[in-house]
């Protein structure tokens, strides 16, 4: 039987990158998408994760589990505590957007670069990375860069500007062992960012799909 993976999105920009990664790396998986894009707008408006947002995540996760999900992958990186609440409420595997990528990053070196195109994702991802490093007993140096305007450009259909802005952000990071993208929607800019920075670039979709395959033993 094909594994049924539910993908929970807070922005429509995440759908295509994760679908492409599954098609390339795990085409046998059956995907189901739950999109609730007011979550990203409300998170940006409020400037913080609220209890009401967490409750909405719990509703989405419970629905996915009731619909036969073998695992759930969340694709928006600004909602870490809400995802932890979902995990505590469920018995099926649930994966944060960035956790697999951050595991790869910590294995790659100690000087790590983070780039985001959605402002709330950057501090959330940095804290997630530092927590993972503390848990692993590893000292790290973190540089961050915001590709301002890149998400808006992609939303307007201007992928070229999106990629250019992210490449410029990658170039501004100096001395990193690896560069990490904070959002699924950024993955199309990986080649441009690698060329601009001269560094290896890790994307959330590829890392997440690979970890899900391992977790489900496929």
Strand content: 15-25%
Q: How many separate domains?
A: 2
Which runs of at least 5 residues are low in confidence (pLDDT < 50)? none
In total, the number of strands is 8
CATH topology grouping of the largest domain:
Rossmann fold
What is the 3D form?
globular
User: Which strand order does the major sheet show?
Assistant: 2-1-3-4
Distance between the termini: 11 Å
Our count of helices gives 10
Biggest beta-sheet profile: 4 strands, parallel
Report what the structure shows.
With 218 residues, the chain is of the alpha/beta class. It has 2 domains: 104 residues, Rossmann fold; 105 residues, Rossmann fold (3-Layer(aba) Sandwich), CATH 3.40.50. It has a 4-stranded parallel sheet with strand order 2-1-3-4, covered by helices on one side. Helix 9 links the parallel strand 7 and strand 8. Helix 1 packs across helix 10 and helix 3 packs across helix 4. The longest helix is centred in the N-terminal third of the chain and has 16 residues. The radius of gyration is 16 Å and the shape is globular. The mean pLDDT is 94.
Question: Could you give a quick summary of the protein structure above?
Answer:
The protein is built from 10 helices and 8 strands. The chain has 218 residues and is an alpha/beta fold.
Which labels suit this protein?
Rossmann fold; globular; alpha/beta; 10 helices; four-stranded parallel β-sheet; 218 residues; 17% strand
Protein topology:
Blueprint (H helix, E strand, L loop, with lengths): L3 E6 L5 H11 L4 E6 L2 H9 L4 H16 L4 E4 L5 H9 L5 E2 L3 H10 L2 E6 L4 H16 L4 E6 L3 H6 L3 H14 L5 E4 L8 H8 L2 E3 L1 H12 L3
Parallel strand pairs: 1-2, 1-3, 3-4, 5-6, 5-7, 7-8
């Amino acid at each position: 039987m094909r594994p049924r993976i539910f993908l929970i999105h807070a922005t429509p920009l995440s759908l295509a990158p994760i679908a492409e990664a599954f098609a390339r790396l795990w085409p046998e998986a059956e995907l189901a998408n739950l999109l609730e894009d007011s979550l990203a707008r409300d998170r940006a408006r409020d400037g913080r994760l609220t209890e009401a947002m967490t409750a909405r995540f719990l509703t989405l996760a419970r629905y996915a589990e009731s619909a036969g999900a073998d695992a759930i992958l969340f694709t928006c990186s600004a909602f870490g505590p809400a995802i932890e609440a979902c995990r505590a409420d469920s018995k099926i595997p649930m994966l944060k957007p960035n956790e697999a990528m951050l595991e790869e990053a910590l294995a790659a070196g100690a000087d790590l670069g983070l780039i985001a195109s959605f402002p709330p994702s950057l501090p959330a991802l940095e804290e997630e990375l530092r927590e993972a490093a503390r848990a692993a007993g590893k000292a790290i140096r973190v540089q961050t860069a915001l590709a301002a305007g890149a998400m808006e450009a992609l939303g307007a259909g201007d992928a070229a500007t999106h990629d250019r802005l992210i490449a410029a952000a990658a170039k501004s990071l100096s001395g990193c062992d690896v560069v990490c993208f904070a959002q699924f929607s950024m993955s199309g800019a990986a080649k441009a960012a690698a060329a601009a920075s001269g560094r290896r670039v890790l994307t959330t979709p590829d890392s997440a799909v690979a970890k899900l395959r391992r977790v489900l033993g496929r």
